[in-house]
Amino acid sequence: MDIGRWIDRHAGFTPDKVALRTAREEISYADLASRIDRAARAMVGELGLVRGDRIAYLGLNSAEQIVLTFAAARAGLSIVPLNWRLAGPEHAFILKDSEAKVLFVEQSFCDHINDPIPNMRMVGSDFSAGGITSLADLMETAGDGDVKWGGGPKEPLLLCYTSGTTGRPKGAVLTQEAILCNALNAQHMHDMTADDHVLTVLPMFHVGGLNIQTSPVLHCGGTVTLHARFDPAATLRDIAALRPTLTVQVPATMEAMIRHPEWQSTDLSSLRVVATGSTDVPTNLIEAFHARDLPVIQIYGSTETAPVAVYQRSDDAPSRFGSIGRVGLHTEVRLVDADGQDVPDGEAGEILVRGKHVATGYWNDPEQTAKAFQDGWFHSGDIAHRDKDGWLWFRDRVKNVIISGGENIYPAEIERVLREVPGIVEVAVVGRPDERWGAAPIAVVACDDPSMTPDCVAAAFEGRLARYKHPKDVFIVEALPRNAMGKVKLDTVRELVGALGPAAS
């Protein structure tokens, strides 16, 4: 049974209940089910797509994207959600790599596709202009006859491309079964029911925006209020006015909300919990939410895990501050050393994940698939340790670890100290070759305090970390380089550090 049937079943039980709310409209479960059915018919009948074909979506969060995703499931297609922050050539690479047959595109993003993509048709997701047919037009002409549907649990559904901080992006292949299993983990994480109302402000081109709360609450029969993109004022306004019970935020959006002048005066009492996901969430952000009586629960996962793999629950938020959580209900996790052997509690090891929510591999990339997916386990490249009670604590990325004089130094540990220094707004710590020690940690920071000096930064480590962990050099820059997903481009930082050479500090 394809996951589009979730919506059909809820349309039978609660046809008039609001499934989706956008700035333009409210869509009931009955209406959403009808749109999904007509969109699937249009894909098969009007566009001639067949089981296994790929479609792509380029646009902000919209009801159309939800419809296309469930319609693709019905027809046995895969959907490639494109990051609208990328440049045209980056979009072109993904469209060519995925061999997308149809691109559904918002009008404002048409100019991102400058050159024709071989064997690909463009369809407007919400408009008819410049000779491009719209999805709405196709749905109007879709027939009512019998259609041989191709969707099912094992069919690939989401082809989500990773951000590609160290090279070309890779397309993680997530099946319909993976989306279902992920939804079950997410429901356990949030104690989610049909009474929940999710406010989605994160982009749904990423699994975080689509699968931490949005698709799981639709599986439950709840309601989603969808913002086209994140805006702190709009987020605070709708929390107060629409009374959602759940939302997902990342550190950048949490900070934007905290800094907004309406933060303290906004009624946030409808929210049962705020979920956040990142490799390392600054504790000061969590504390600011807790000060407003808002429990913040952390989730650990990745594009390849759909992403819900390790998480906290609401009762855990105060007592396990900073932990990424316990292993999910439908997940297995191992922590292993460089030889692939399980490490004891308290020792750091790479996180390996197994479960039906894990990707089957990378699209059209057998070499990278073989490296990351071995014997049923996804090798995350992240390091954590497990305490005696089974709680996991994130350390760093494997590739970021600095081996200095035979000791492992985790940049994330140094960055946590730097984030507590008043006047520092961005931090990155990377390794630099060192003749004596093999490698040494180097700190690169951006500050909003013009009086900040490298010596002031270095002084923050006294009595906080072992001497060998102290940065050997500190560079102050105007801003850190980031990719389209907002992640710091560590390779560029390393190049910068190498070009600058030893600093006076």
From TrEMBL:
Span of domain AMP-binding enzyme C-terminal: 413-487
**Which biological processes are named by the entry's GO terms?**
fatty acid metabolic process
Q: Where is the AMP-dependent synthetase/ligase domain?
A: 8-363
The UniProt GO MF terms for this protein read: medium-chain fatty acid-CoA ligase activity
Keyword DNA-binding in the entry? The reply is no
Q: What keywords sit in the KW lines? A: Ligase
**What's this protein's family per the entry?**
Belongs to the ATP-dependent AMP-binding enzyme family.
Q: What name is this protein filed under?
A: Long-chain-fatty-acid--CoA ligase
Q: Which organism is it from?
A: Hwanghaeella grinnelliae
